[in-house]
């Protein structure tokens, strides 16, 4: 049986898809949605949170939720979420193409990023993300073999985090991220549908276990028209 919040999520999403709510429009307040759909506050908040996670709305505390432009994808830079998790409730059909999966060592710069010795080993995983028929993201992930001893191809094709958490029992804690913009490389043009774009958004991530062990370094390269960073900020007095 479908949960109440997911049912409400689909009702609101249908209105957005049919453009009853245009990009830039405000959704009704939580109280209005509760009355209109006979839903509890918890149900409304969970449904809105799913819309935020899937990039359909932007929501800040104390303000009405705003409908976002679907031509851009809202990636949760301030959260730790797998590609599979981001699109788990989406009607679009994302596809992952594994370009390379290998064990590497001897790369001093990379091993320093992972905070391991130059002669230690790491998994190198390169994947291209295709959304709605367009290749728009390159994910380059590196995992220390001191933590991740094995990384099967099936996990790379599906969800690495699901494998790490459910099969290896690892507890992922937090990440530090850096966002920059660079000129596109030959590899970007070769692997992505760049069109007329010559710039790329680069998100570098250092991801740690709950015990503060660094186990992953990621360089994620996004086509600029399909990247939007949305976060909530509060002024400190």
From TrEMBL:
Sequence ranges assigned to domain HTH gntR-type in this UniProt record: 2-70
UniProt-listed Pfam families: GntR (PF00392), UTRA (PF07702)
A GO molecular-function annotation: DNA-binding transcription factor activity
Alphabetized InterPro entries for the sequence: Bact_HTH_transcr_reg (IPR050679), Chorismate_lyase_/UTRA_dom_sf (IPR028978), TreR (IPR012770), Tscrpt_reg_HTH_GntR (IPR000524), UTRA (IPR011663), WH-like_DNA-bd_sf (IPR036388), WH_DNA-bd_sf (IPR036390)
UniProt xrefs under CDD domains: WHTH_GntR
GO biological process, one term: negative regulation of DNA-templated transcription
Domain of life: Bacteria
Keyword terms, alphabetized: DNA-binding, Transcription, Transcription regulation
Statement: the UniProt record of this protein carries the keyword DNA-binding: yes
Protein name, entry field: Trehalose operon repressor
